[in-house]
Specification:
Layout lengths: L2 H40 L18 E11 L5 E13 L4 E12 L5 E11 L5 E12 L2 E2 L5 E2 L2 E11 L4 E4 L3 E5 L4 E5 L1 E5 L4 E5 L3 E3 L9
Antiparallel strand pairs: 1-2, 2-3, 3-4, 4-5, 5-8, 6-7, 8-9, 8-10, 9-12, 10-11, 11-14, 12-13
């Protein structure tokens, strides 16, 4: 092959390469896109079901100097709650109240009051947890059979009151007072069931029983 023919061949190959090099980046990008798509389609998904972020224990609304009343189907007042400040927590659906005061009436009309520096109430107000200087008082009551139930007062740094079952529990030391200026008991813990008329005092129990006054003269 002559030198002129070699030069002519080299020039033709150079022109062909110049044309190919113009489209080479597009070809490479297409190959990369196809390989990425293939990897996405064929890579197993190890994440499983997606999980929603757990709600944080942060209040979603506040109340100040408030009162809440609950009425029964007959229109009669069942309970009333007052507080200096209230904070609702959506993660537990509870209401935390400062300087809480509660008044409750059972089906017979007997009044129960509760006070504490702080309280936590569940969604339907069936449970009230009282913290710091907690006091629950069941006023004296005479039923239809004229049986008299004396005034009962419970004091502790923690009292857990169950409204529907009329029960009070505490795992901390508690003081129980019965009657006005009457008997006094001190215990390490307490389980008080008003419906069953049963009081369980546990741990170290100490009591003072005053003599009953003889009314017959």
């Amino acid at each position: 092959m002559s030198v002129a023919a070699q030069i002519s061949l080299w020039l033709r190959m150079r022109r062909v390469w110049d044309r190919v090099s113009v489209y080479l980046p597009l070809v490479l990008m297409g190959l990369m896109a196809m390989s990425t798509y293939w990897l996405v389609r064929n890579t197993p998904f190890l994440g499983g079901d997606t999980f929603e972020e757990a709600p944080r224990h942060v209040p979603d609304y506040f109340m100040q100097d408030f009162s809440v009343r609950v009425f029964g189907q007959d229109g009669k007042l069942k309970s009333e709650m007052l507080g200096a400040e209230g904070r609702h927590f959506p993660d537990t659906d509870t209401l935390e109240v400062d300087d809480i005061r509660v008044r409750m009436l059972n089906a017979e009309g007997r009044l129960t009051t509760a006070t504490a520096k702080r309280g936590v109430i569940n969604a339907d107000a069936s449970e009230v947890q009282l913290f710091d200087q907690a006091i629950v008082v069941r006023e004296a009551f005479q039923n239809k059979q004229e049986a008299l139930s004396p005034r009962t007062e419970l004091r502790s740094e923690f009292l857990h009151f169950f409204a529907n079952t009329e029960r009070v529990r505490s795992h901390l030391p508690v003081v129980l007072l019965r009657g006005v200026g009457g008997d006094q008991f001190v215990a390490d813990s307490l389980d008080y069931d008003n419906l069953e008329r049963v009081i369980q005092l546990k741990g170290r129990v100490r009591g003072t029983l005053l003599p009953r006054k003889d009314k017959a003269k």
